[in-house]
Amino acid sequence: MEILALDEEEQDCAFANGSDPVEVGAYTLTSEVFVQGVLTPLLATPPPLDEDIAHRCAQFLEHLLGSGRASIREMVSIRVTDHLLGYSGNWERFRKYAGEYLLCEVRDRQRYYKSPF
Questions:
Q1: Nearest to 58 by CA among 80, 74, 89
Q2: Cys staple from 58: which of 31, 65, 78, 97, with CB 3.0 to 4.6 Å?
Q3: In Å, how far from its chain's centre is CA 38?
Q4: Rounded to 5 degrees, what angle do the CA atoms 110, 114, 117 make?
Q5: Are 49 and 95 in contact (CB under 8 A)?
Q6: Is the pTM of this model over 0.85?
Q7: What is the C-alpha separation between 62 and 102, in angstroms, rounded?
Q8: Do residues 47 and 89 lie in contact, with contact meaning Cβ atoms separated by under 8 Å?
Q9: CA 73 from chain center: how many Å?
Q10: Whole-number Å distance between alpha carbons of 84 and 40
Q11: What digits encode the pLDDT tens for the residues 40-69?
């Protein structure tokens, strides 16, 4: 499927007519909005983490992982768990906020990483 780039005027017209001119996939949305827009800045702040944001991030991940959809779990593994486990200190800072599903996900994936857990 080919997606054509629309200029700003075309996008405004498409939105006004009720259509979505840009298709955004779950992987892109998760990476660009959640990981890059929320999780990375959260984990980059000096301690302590913003408790409210950390809890909301953890709840969001629990909802995704608890959806029962294998494709969603895979997306979380590739985009979020890899970010938490693949960068030094991320998991250590976020672990206390993790729910049951994320803890299970990390246990399943940590064998692929050298960092201490």
A1: 80
A2: 97
A3: 8
A4: 55
A5: no
A6: no
A7: 6
A8: no
A9: 11
A10: 9
A11: 999 999 999 999 999 999 999 999 999 999
Q: Which two tokens stand for residue 108?
A: 């399943």
Token pair 């409210």 is found at 52
Give the closest residue to 84 by CA, choosing from 36, 39, 38: 39
**Is there a contact between 58 and 99 (Cβ–Cβ < 8 Å)?**
yes
Distances in whole angstroms, Cα of residue 27 to Cα of each of 49, 52, 53, 73: 25, 24, 21, 11
Output DSSP code: residue 17: T
Query: Which pair of structure tokens corresponds to residue 58?
Result: 């953890």
Q: Is the peptide bond before 48 cis (omega within 30 degrees of 0)?
A: yes
